[in-house]
Design a protein that fits this description.
alpha/beta, Rossmann fold, single chain, 7-stranded parallel sheet, 2 domains, 12 strands, 336 residues, 13 helices
């Protein structure tokens, strides 16, 4: 099957070309993201492969459908950027990669925690300038601290296991209590209680209308002074302006982000010679207690290999009329 892959990064091609040896699809790579201006590049192509920052709203889906596209193959787990109602009305099938390497994201989450706690980003910068002073680099023992995990699916459960290994107390928020987390001693509470009791809050829930800006001024007012906040899930979970205000007062003591609500115009691009016009993002960069990585939590060899394999297998299954139910995205899935 002909597949147009939008928003392609150089590192992805190797993995997709290798995975395609067993599928023999005809792959066309485009570096630009999918949007209303680029959608017509898929004219006559039955399958389009999209990533997290590609636009899949009603307008774009309409253009794709008119051009003959029948399948949207997401090479990611999240699907909040897809207008699922429009996709169903147009008869477009949407498939995703529900799990590639939860270990990759969980490990990156903990790396952000450790780097923020021990000020590793500042320490490395100092030593490169031959400044060996330890002033301002005092951290805290992770052991005995309370970690609040919002969303205890595969990734959240792995974070719980790692933090349990540090000797942390675990609190969780989720509609469903994970047996593995209960075994680790996690106590499930409501979000307000988690905010009030946690030294570290880390987000691992999907972005839905209910979870949009779940971290907001009201909730931040309930947190412990100096709380560490980590988000490696979706940028829209956080009201960034409210977090900036909390950073200024010290209510948020440190912030680690791998995602940002307006990241589509920033991440996966080299903007080192350009002026960034996003004043909110640039304000975040001024804080010494903030670390931002550019949506790289998933980025391990194992994860990218799995993404490529599952994405192309989804297309093959669709071509054969054997659509995998677990990988299909519907409006009902969003409401779970």
């Amino acid at each position: 099957m002909d597949i147009v892959i939008f928003g392609t990064q150089a590192f992805e091609r190797e993995f997709f070309d290798r995975a395609n040896r067993t599928h023999n699809h005809r792959l066309t790579y485009f570096e630009p993201n999918l949007c209303d201006r680029t959608a017509r590049l898929a004219q006559g192509c039955p399958a389009v492969c999209a990533f997290v920052n590609d636009r899949l709203d009603r307008e774009v889906l309409g253009i794709l459908h008119a051009g003959g596209t029948r399948l949207i193959a997401l090479r990611c787990a999240g699907f909040n950027h897809v207008a699922l109602d429009a996709a169903e009305e147009l008869g477009l099938t949407v498939l995703r990669v529900p799990a590639y390497s939860p270990h990759a994201v969980a490990e990156h989450t903990v790396a952000l925690m450790l780097a923020l706690n021990r000020r590793l980003h500042r320490s490395v910068a100092r030593v490169r300038e031959q400044n060996f002073s330890l002033n301002g680099l005092v951290g805290f023992d992770m052991h005995g601290k309370t970690v609040g995990i919002v969303g205890t699916g595969k990734i959240g459960a792995l974070v719980a296991r790692i933090m349990g290994g540090f000797g942390c107390h675990l609190l969780g928020v989720d509609r469903h209590e994970a047996p593995e987390c209960l075994t680790l001693g996690m106590r499930y509470v409501n979000l307000d209680t988690l905010a009030e009791a946690s030294d570290i809050i880390t987000l691992h829930c999907p972005l839905t209308p209910e979870s949009y800006r779940i971290i907001n001024a009201r909730l931040l007012s309930k947190t412990r002074p100096g709380v560490m906040l980590i988000n490696t899930s979706r940028g829209g979970l956080i009201d960034t302006r409210a977090v900036i205000a909390a950073l200024k007062t010290g209510r948020v003591g440190s912030l680690g982000l791998d995602v940002y609500e307006e990241e589509a115009d920033l991440f996966f691009r080299d903007l080192s010679n350009e002026i960034i016009h996003d004043d909110v993002f640039m304000r975040l960069l001024t804080f010494p207690n903030v670390i931002i990585t550019a949506h790289q939590a998933f980025l391990t060899r194992e994860a990218v290999e799995q993404i490529a394999q599952v994405t192309l297998r989804n297309v093959t299954d669709f071509e054969r009329g054997e659509i995998p139910a677990d990988n299909r995205v519907t409006r009902q899935l969003m409401m779970r």
